[in-house]
Amino acid sequence: MPREARDDAPHDSAALLELFDVLGRRWALRIIWELGTHALTYRELAAAIPDMSTSVLTQRLRDLRAAGLAEHERGAGYRLTSRGRELRAHVEGFREWAAREGFAADRAAR
Fold first, then answer.
1. What pLDDT digit, counting tens, does each position of 26-43 carry?
2. What is the mean pLDDT of residues 79-100?
3. What's residue 47's pLDDT?
4. Residue 69 and residue 22 in contact, taking contact as beta carbons nearer than 8 Å
5. Which residues, 6 or more positions from 26, have their beta carbon under 8 angstroms from its beta carbon?
6. DSSP-derived secondary structure letter, 31
7. Taking a C-beta distance cutoff of 8 angstroms, is the pair 34, 78 a contact?
8. String of b and e for 6-30 (b: at least 16 CB within 10 Å)?
9. pLDDT score at 104
10. C-alpha to C-alpha distance for 82 and 87, rounded to whole angstroms
11. Using an 8 Å Cβ cutoff, are 67 and 22 in contact?
């Protein structure tokens, strides 16, 4: 989005744009999805998303913690905060839509 358009965005859109900045980073939503039901250790998260590099996993976990969406508890692993769980409930709508539409990226590109 051009800088001028962001500066002119209504005040109530600013928070949404900030959320888009966090969630738009590669793998962020996938991590939120994986943490949706229970805490996972770093190794468990890495195994759940094998195509993601460990350096990207480390950075995304930092990003999600900084945004207050995830937290780390020594011995238990990473989990969503209450804020993150609320967000994930909204992400559930994507799953429902994708299933209903039979969405597949290779067909969507056609």
1. 999 999 999 998 999 999
2. 93
3. 97
4. yes
5. 56, 60
6. H
7. no
8. eeeeeeeeeeeeeeeebbeeebbbe
9. 81
10. 9
11. yes
Amino acid at 109: A
Question: Is 83's pLDDT higher than 70?
Answer: yes
Q: Residue 23 to residues 10, 73, 101, 109: CA-CA distances in angstroms?
A: 20, 22, 23, 22
Give tens-digit pLDDT for 3-25: 455 555 566 799 999 999 999 99
Beta strands 70-73; 77-80: pairing state: antiparallel
Q: What tokens does 39 get?
A: 């805490």
Say if residue 106's pLDDT is above 90.
no
Kindly state the helix (H) or strand (E) to which residue 97 belongs, with its residue range: helix 82-101
